[in-house]
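Severity: low
Component: inverse-folding endpoint
Summary: output formatting inconsistent between runs
Steps to reproduce: submit the following structure tokens with default settings.
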């Protein structure tokens, strides 16, 4: 055994030595160099254009409110302060919206991931009754949308309007995510599952002990999709829970402040008598609040995504290999 290991190490050293001696350096032509420069320049500018809006909002939230109102903050923050974030606690119902949004993100994403994994595993089984029909039926739902009014009437008939369930139930089943999970599970060697089945494991045990752990990359991928969707969702709160302010999401609350800012600005610019000092003060406060709440809605996703990125890339690529 020791002799075999020594021979293997010797062969490995010889192989490395060969590649070092025969290593070639690829020379780039002038056109290749110009293309590389233009390519890197374009993507650098594109990246900056994507990051600048977030940077602009952030420097406005940590600068003096009077300077922000005057539009004096462009590239560098001035008179640094964190009072804007401290004063957020004084905004009506803001923390209730943060709690509702966080709760729906955690519960909704967890249920969506579990149902997607279970349904994706189910449609890979040949023993499933009328498998092709149900899978095609699932895919068809991705291409047909009844529209906003039928959707609202359906939610109303189900009795989930003006309730927290309106955030959870419609998003439990996601056909696209189920397809991603199904494709990924089919890439797992079938011999693993067959050996467990021969040893007497049930489908549920195979799913819980084998399929679920091996599917973590794709599950992390769809978890990001679900979490971002729930966190940024506005339409269901705006339409289904319009009569329940205690259920407003963070995006809905931001939408309200954006409207208040626009309405007060139009009032001042029209020169009507109602545009008194109180209204002007409201514009200042609302503008600062909308910037700060915008950062609050962005920061959690920016903090979570880097930790999930490696799973996201691996899961998305492997889940899209086969159709």
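Observed output (run 2 of 3):
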């Amino acid at each position: 055994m020791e002799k075999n290991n020594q021979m293997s190490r010797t062969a490995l050293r010889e192989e490395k030595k060969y590649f070092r001696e025969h290593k070639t350096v690829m020379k780039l032509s002038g056109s290749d160099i110009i293309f590389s420069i233009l390519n890197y320049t374009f993507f650098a500018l594109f990246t900056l254009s994507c990051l600048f809006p977030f940077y602009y909002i952030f420097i406005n939230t940590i600068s003096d409110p009077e300077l922000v109102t005057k539009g004096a903050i462009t590239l560098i923050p001035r008179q640094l302060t964190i009072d804007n974030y401290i004063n957020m606690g004084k905004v009506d119902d803001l923390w209730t919206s943060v709690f509702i949004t966080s709760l729906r993100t955690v519960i909704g994403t967890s249920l969506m991931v579990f149902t997607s994994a279970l349904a994706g595993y189910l449609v890979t089984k040949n023993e499933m009754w009328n498998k092709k029909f149900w899978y095609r039926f699932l895919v068809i739902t991705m291409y047909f949308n009844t529209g906003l009014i039928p959707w609202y009437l359906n939610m109303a008939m189900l009795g989930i309007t003006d309730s927290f369930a309106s955030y959870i139930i419609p998003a439990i089943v996601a056909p696209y995510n189920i397809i991603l999970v199904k494709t990924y599970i089919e890439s797992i060697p079938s011999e693993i599952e067959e050996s467990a089945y021969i040893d007497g494991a049930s489908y549920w045990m195979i799913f819980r002990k084998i399929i679920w752990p091996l599917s973590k990359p794709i599950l992390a991928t769809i978890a990001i999709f679900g979490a971002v969707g729930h966190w940024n969702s506005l339409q269901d709160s705006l339409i289904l829970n319009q009569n329940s302010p205690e259920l407003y999401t963070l995006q809905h609350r931001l939408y309200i402040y954006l409207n208040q800012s626009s309405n007060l600005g139009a009032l001042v610019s029209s020169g009507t008598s109602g545009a008194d000092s109180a209204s002007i003060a409201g514009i200042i406060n609302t503008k600062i609040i909308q910037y700060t709440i915008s950062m609050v809605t962005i920061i959690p996703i920016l903090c979570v995504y880097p930790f999930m990125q490696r799973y996201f890339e691996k899961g998305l690529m492997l889940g899209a290999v086969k159709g």
